[in-house]
Amino acid sequence: MSYELERIEELCRERGWSHYRLAREMDTSPNNIGNLFRRTTVPSIPTIRRICEVMGITMAQFYSTDGEQITLNPQQRRMLELYDHLDQTSKLRAEAYMEGLSAKGPADQT
User: Which residue has the higher pLDDT, 34 or 76?
Assistant: First the structure.
């Protein structure tokens, strides 16, 4: 089973939600959720985003491996939304630009 499916299962267990309840919260067919687990495929990003939305967590929290809860302020959230719409080349340029603006470059980061 993929990390994403295992994480969805973990989040459902934490909330006491069944797959049916998750589907209801997402306003989708229970078959859609059941198919994810029957096929053991990696859910799409829009599906994961919707799951995060109904569970009240961010994508960063979904993918957090250390259990740390990350809270983004509105400006940080906006930066990530803009970043998500860039192609790969533009993402690399944006990262290089931000590293140039920061006091610490990539080699200095710990």
Answer: 34
